[in-house]
């Protein structure tokens, strides 16, 4: 009896039809639910293009010839970011009114580098990466120099373009 | 309890005229079919030789997992998985919530116990050849359980949303950013955006409490199912070779001739050991307490020294020690390749000898792996490659090195301190170990070589030519050439005649 329904016969087409309809409807339903879920999961990728100009404060706060720690608020912060919305960076006022702004993250594995005014070097506490004052690699494991922000001086204020954690595949 | 010779006996099922409780039991059993479906599984026969204290580590790992579920659920009642509040809620849990510190300690030590017991379990399984035919799939599933448990340990470290967690995520992102082509995508998916922020913690929380535990539960069920269906490994005997043709027959014969029901006879040692594990866990938690959190995850507090938890120290050390040219390739390729080699083990070593007594290769492998991991972990704790960031201002130059020196040499000694040389170079045993100690540097380098080294540096030392005036280099080298033991002369340049370096002699 069962074998018959699986092969042919007048009342088997109805069963076959229902089976196929059932499979089809479920595939359709799963697709309708699955596509928005995949889109939701991929949402972080769409935010990637986001970069914003951020004010770092007055030029007067960064004397010529010195490199100082500055901080800004992540321009894409959400209210529940808490302290993680605060992003530090190193601002170097080169003699002559031009500025360099470096990401805090070492190019090796992202640890926060520290500036030493006396030896004019950035040192990384994790694996001993060293950078010169212009951000170029001096020694140690980093494969490149410090990540550098795009800088603009608008009137009396320094602006940088940022909002991203710099890694070897995506600069700040 | 059930008697040994009656395997179908149901525990709790009363004999004789059933009372109220007995009738309830019988009714439940009629509905649940416990005595028909479950009890035979529990009472299935195992080789008598498998009821050994060497076979208790799997069940002890499972016990830890269950305890982690319980303590984890408890912690989630108070913990706030929000970047703005996680740290504060942990402080509250640790210092204000009654017994909150103890639950945190139980969860922390539970994770350590789980990884440790799981590691012992893997080594035992490997030494006893339990991964061989026909238990290949049990081993494969176990490998994934191992990976998922480490994933729990890593994501759990992020839950302790402190400075280590923040910079640990930074390190993770920096590694992910090294993937060719897809690096940026992987980073964004890992962090939930272009930067470490609220969504980063939220997604690690989701992984830690929903996704990974669900996968663990499913795979644990599969692992146990396989142990039940394929049967526990018998005690391996040298000379009793595993062959695909005869093994199953031999195993069934062994179980029939020299077997015993797992419950109650095979489970006693598991019970004893599980109890001991719980007592040890409570002791560790009560005496040693929870771990962290350390400082608030404020990225602008940059005077921090990120360190991973113990189980990731070997990886942390390996990343520090890899030569630059192979660094990215090894970081990205070595973990999956090693994992696949482990997963595939029963497929290239699935038959033959099981016993550790006649498998010297197994010994060599296990000893090599653990000596390597142990050395790396030890190096990771000491981190000699990390500069000591405050050495220049916190560790004075030993007095005997400046006593009786000329003004120029003293000037050089000042430069060694003030230009952060000590952050990487030790003097008198204090200071960084990133570069060689300078105590006897004059015996290794001549005056000219010292000048070259200071000015040009090398791959591991920055070139100070840009950052020191010629007069400062002069003074620095004048001091460095005095750094040699009294009974050992400074290095001399064989090409120059005469007694060597002027001004170096004391």
Task: Give a description of the structure.
The complex is a heterodimer of chains A (172) and B (506). Chain A is an alpha+beta fold. Chain A has helices at residues 2-7, 12-41, 43-46; strands at 52-58, 67-73, 86-94, 98-103, 114-116, 121-123, 130-132, 137-139, 150-154, 157-162. Chain A has 2 domains: 2-43; 50-162, Rieske [2Fe-2S] iron-sulphur domain (Rieske Iron-sulfur Protein, 3-layer Sandwich). Chain A is 23% helix and 30% strand. Chain A has a 4-stranded antiparallel beta sheet, with no helix packed on it. Chain A has a 3-stranded antiparallel beta sheet with strand order 1-10-9, with no helix packed on it. A 3-stranded antiparallel beta sheet of chain A has the order 2-3-4, with no helix packed on it. Chain A starts with a helix and ends in a 10-residue tail after the last strand. Chain B is 59% helix and 1% strand. At the A-B interface, strand 3 of A face helix 7, helix 8, helix 9, helix 14 and helix 19 of B.
Blueprint of the fold:
The complex is a heterodimer of chains A (172) and B (506).
Chain A: H1 2-7, H2 12-41, H3 43-46, E1 52-58, E2 67-73, E3 86-94, E4 98-103, E5 114-116, E6 121-123, E7 130-132, E8 137-139, E9 150-154, E10 157-162
Antiparallel strand pairs in A: 1-10, 2-3, 3-4, 5-6, 6-7, 7-8, 9-10
Chain B: H1 20-32, H2 34-42, E1 45-47, H3 57-76, H4 86-95, H5 100-127, H6 136-159, H7 163-176, H8 183-191, H9 198-230, H10 247-258, E2 259-261, H11 262-266, H12 268-288, H13 313-321, H14 324-343, H15 345-348, H16 360-382, H17 391-394, H18 407-418, H19 421-424, H20 441-444, H21 447-456, H22 470-480
Antiparallel strand pairs in B: 1-2
Helix pairs in contact in B: 3-5, 3-12, 4-5, 5-6, 5-12, 6-9, 7-8, 13-16, 18-22, 21-22
